[in-house]
Amino acid sequence: MGQVINFKGETKMDNCQRCGSKRVLGYSAKADDRQSWILGEADGEGYLPGDFNIGAGDYIEFDFCMDCGQIQGQFPLPETEFEETNKEKAAE
Ligand SMILES: [Zn+2]
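Above: query sequence and zinc ion SMILES. Below: predicted holo structure tokens.
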């Protein structure tokens, strides 16, 4: 079997930040502006906001532990622009 290099140029994922498992899946998809999401009572569609920590713009990209379910990254995320925007709408 040849060496696999993913879209980020990585040849191997780090172990899971939560449980240490090696079964971390690096996932990527190009979805252009055909994306949608729900957060609390608000929903959105279009290009993926970068501050959701699952990619940005055209691309959905995240590293996911297949043992414990943890998406790799820094948590908790700070308030997103989407939340900030929809908070202002709700207050009107
Ligand atoms: Zn894990």
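Helices lie at 81-91.
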